[in-house]
Amino acid sequence: MFKGILIEKDDAGYRAALHDIDESQLPDGDVTVRVSHSTLNYKDGLAITGKGPVVRKFPMVPGVDLVGTVEATSHAEYKVGDAVVLNGWGVGEGHWGGLAQKARLKGEWLVPLPKQFTPQQAMAIGTAGYTAMLCVLALERNGVTPDKGEILVTGAAGGVGSVAVAVLSKLGYTVVGVSGRPEESDYVKRLGATEVLERSLFSSPGKPLARERWAGAVDVVGSHTLANVCATTKYRGVVTACGLAGGMDFPSTVAPFILRAVTLAGVDSVMCPRPDRLVAWQRLGLDLDVAKLDLITNEIGLAEAIPMASQLLDGKVRGRVVVDVNR
Fold first, then answer.
1. Which of 7, 73, 145, 285 lies 20 to 30 Å from 208 when distance is taken between CA atoms?
2. Separation of alpha carbons 247 and 157, rounded Å
3. In the CATH scheme, what is the code of domain 2-113+293-324?
4. Enoyl reductase (ER) domain: from which residue to which, for each copy (predicted)?
5. pLDDT (tens digit, 9 = 90+) per residue, 128-164?
6. Cβ-based neighbours of 227, under 8 Å, separated by 6 or more
7. HSE-CB of 113 using CA atoms within 13 angstroms
């Protein structure tokens, strides 16, 4: 038996609760992992609260991230005792995820835990940080270098935004953050931002084109925010889009793309191929100041993840939430 959060949906309704789970209930997979830490992401908040149609089968253990040690394996690349990390691949949605003390998974979903990080640090990064690194790689791939100008990061006090600010600033970019929480401005600046702008400047309908400012951007919000970011991006600038915290719509025009040659680069972390994941984690080991993880991280126990999910969706959580599944 092991402890885990189980989401159930039946005639009695939709509910998430901490349960004792028999190992025989674990889904199919060729690697069984003894989980040490997981995280709480926006998608996990939707799953636990039922406020979004995230979970595709029931019962479900949520948690799109996990880190732990291999307990049993029939996969050629792993042996018992290996430290491994998982991000995405639909775990916590269609396959049992990381908010439990054990998980059974497909070996091709896993990557080795980078030696630069402890398990807790790896989850302080988690899907949010790994997604932020994919955005940085997309900016680099499209030719955005520090000398090109300012980089805008929306949702800068959140999980993706916090890591994006920290990584970009260490790489020498001039970073401007956007946040709906003025009280978090000092926090975002401590991560490396030179300026923090109020979310309201971007969240309402704007002009098809506005004054050029950004050489690049990392957007986690979508909707009017993404449209306004594109409208204020410089000629041949690059905007990476990886989230929808403000909505799935994109009320824009083609003007930024055909008049300023702006590139809108989509970033997906869930089904990202394994070679790209390995590069992202390698770069995180080089380009993320580990000392800043203490600023970003809030650690909780497994049972605390359920009430914390609502706070996360309400935008009341700073940075990253790491879940110690064994307390």
1. 145
2. 18
3. 3.90.180.10
4. 13-323
5. 999 999 999 999 999 999 999 999 999 999 999 999 9
6. 205, 206, 250, 251, 252
7. 24
